């Protein structure tokens, strides 16, 4: 018996560009570029026994990531069952993960002057090369170790660390830690401390909120400003760090709690998060506009919930660098 053949229920060539971007978060040309890149991995070894062309697979997954709705995805793709879509999702995610290091790249030394200049334009703090924050992405917890995924708000999640540039390009993502883990722990156990320590001779910094300790390479706000200079620094810090909050209002509603928790294993949820970051960066290349349907409040919904700051003890802070910045630039 021959397997069913799935054909697209949509024709990209007949769709308006705005509708394509609204539905898939990428423009027509970028979708075709992505399909061409992933096609070798999406073709089954024996002439596609599933009968699902790469374009159908990619469109189905893009729409799921954009909308968070499996039912809508089925309607717009090819009438495939939920079981079949789950296989397609795994296949597309696996293909995307092979290219992760090509899509999410920390700035090279030769690019740092431009990166610093872009950040300086935001808040007039020198030598910033990234803004970092944590965010929760809700998931249905696994039966084992359920408690480690439980947040302080009593739902279950992955605690995701993101670093972005001034143009909202995501330069780092760490999506492997459960929701009960503190932001500072996620940071300490990521590659960022090593990378930033290697750059210390250049006096470069990341900028983050008070959920992190102030470090030799990480600038945080002054918790209780006592001088006008400290207040000016905090104001500049807020203007600069705001870019990561806007970046976390991502294009992909599958990460948003209003769509419900992701009903996949933690590993698969991690892959979904990383894939959304990759596709966000891909959309920035041709400067695809951020179009999104109105959320429940009538406006654009945030794609992820920012982690509520839990301040670390002052004893962990190394404030010398921050004091120097305040003295030199905000007195």
UniProtKB/TrEMBL annotation:
Q: Where is the DDE Tnp4 domain?
A: 133-281
Query: Is this entry keyworded NAD?
Result: no
What GO cellular component term, any one, is given? nucleus
On the tree of life, the source organism's domain of life is: Eukaryota
Q: Which UniProt keywords apply?
A: Cytoplasm, Hydrolase, Metal-binding, Nuclease, Nucleus
Question: Cofactors per UniProt?
Answer: a divalent metal cation
What name does this protein carry?
A: Putative nuclease HARBI1
Organism annotation: Pleurodeles waltl
What is the taxonomic lineage of the source species? Eukaryota, Metazoa, Chordata, Craniata, Vertebrata
């Amino acid at each position: 018996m021959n397997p069913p053949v799935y054909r697209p229920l949509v024709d990209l060539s007949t769709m308006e560009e705005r509708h394509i971007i609204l539905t898939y978060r990428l423009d027509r040309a970028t979708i075709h570029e992505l399909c061409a890149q992933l096609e070798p991995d999406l073709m089954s070894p024996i002439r596609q026994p599933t009968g699902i062309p790469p374009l159908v697979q990619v469109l189905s997954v893009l729409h799921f990531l954009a909308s968070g709705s499996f039912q809508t995805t089925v309607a717009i793709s090819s009438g495939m069952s939920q079981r079949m879509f789950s296989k397609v999702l795994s296949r597309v995610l696996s293909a995307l993960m092979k290219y992760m290091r090509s899509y999410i790249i920390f700035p090279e030394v030769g690019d740092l002057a431009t990166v610093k200049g872009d950040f300086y334009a935001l808040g007039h703090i020198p030598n910033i090369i990234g803004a970092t924050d944590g965010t929760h992405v809700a998931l249905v917890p696994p039966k084992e170790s359920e408690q480690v995924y439980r947040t302080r708000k009593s739902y279950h999640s992955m605690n995701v660390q993101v670093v972005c540039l001034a143009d909202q390009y995501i330069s780092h993502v760490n999506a492997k830690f459960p929701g009960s883990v503190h932001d500072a722990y996620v940071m300490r156990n990521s590659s960022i401390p090593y990378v930033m320590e290697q750059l210390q001779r250049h006096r470069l910094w990341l900028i983050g909120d008070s959920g992190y300790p102030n470090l030799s390479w990480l600038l945080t706000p002054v918790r209780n400003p006592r001088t006008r200079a400290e207040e000016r620094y905090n104001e500049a810090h807020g203007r600069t760090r705001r870019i990561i909050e806007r970046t976390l209002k991502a294009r992909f509603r599958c990460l948003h709690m209003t769509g419900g928790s992701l009903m996949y294993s933690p590993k698969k949820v991690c892959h979904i998060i990383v894939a959304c970051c990759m596709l966000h960066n891909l959309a920035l290349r041709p400067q695809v506009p951020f179009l999104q349907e109105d959320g429940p409040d009538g406006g654009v919904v945030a794609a992820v919930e920012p982690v509520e700051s839990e301040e670390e003890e002052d004893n962990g802070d190394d404030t010398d660098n921050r004091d120097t910045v305040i003295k030199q630039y905000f007195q």
